[in-house]
Amino acid sequence: MRRSTLGGVAAALLLSAAVARTASMTIPAGATISVRMTDVLDSKTNRNGETFRATVDAPVMMNGTVVIPKGAEAIGRITDVEPSRRLRGRAMLTVELTALNFDGKSVAVHTGTFQEGSASRGKQTMKIAGAATAIGTVVGLIGGAPWIGTGVGAAAGMVVQTVRGPAQIRIPAESLLSFTLLSPLPVE
User: What pTM value is reported for the model?
Assistant: First the structure.
């Protein structure tokens, strides 16, 4: 009988040690968390400091154990929004994760940022104005007044860019974003 009591105590100690090991783990800095956007973000309508929601797209594993389950709610924040201007500049939208909610608890996280940017409007304006200038020059040469054609072409190119308006960044719902942990994340 003494042998079975010792065996039971040993089994209980091993079980409690295993539970303690899985109950508190630390995800190292540099680990990646992939999330799928729930909300839509747009550089035209969203502002710095606004929050967004997403869900963890793949479970975060450590030593074969799920530490953060797939489907956990992820909360993030917009850290920088730069809308594009009409003729130059580029729209930028920068976001980071701030918290993960799962198993009835909320865990604060410190991640790197995810940044999405549009093409530079200055380069687009130069290309369109340059093409319109070239076409205007050819038309002007045919008509016998290349300088007038050049000026009209350049002006037409600028008008096209102004009418097109600024390019904006949009991150639609269901977009997959990846964030890197900047500091270790203790998870109980």
Answer: 0.64
Domain boundaries, the chain: 26-118+167-187, 122-163
Which segments of the chain are extended strands (E)? 25-27, 32-37, 41-42, 51-56, 60-62, 65-68, 73-82, 92-102, 105-108, 114-117, 170-171, 176-180, 185-187
Look over the chain and give the mean of its residue pLDDT values, rounded to a whole number. 77
Distance, CA of 131 to CA of 126 (rounded, Å): 8
- Cβ 38 vs Cβ 176: under 8 Å: no
> Would you give the distance in Å from CA 164 to the centre of its chain?
26
Structure confidence by residue, pLDDT tens digits, 70-124: 999 999 999 998 876 544 567 889 999 999 999 999 999 999 999 987 655 455 5
> Mean of the pLDDT values across residues 38-49?
92
Fold of 26-118+167-187: Lipocalin (2.40.128)
Asked if 90 and 120 touch (Cβ cutoff 8 Å), the reply is: yes
The tokens describing 173, both together, are 């719902």
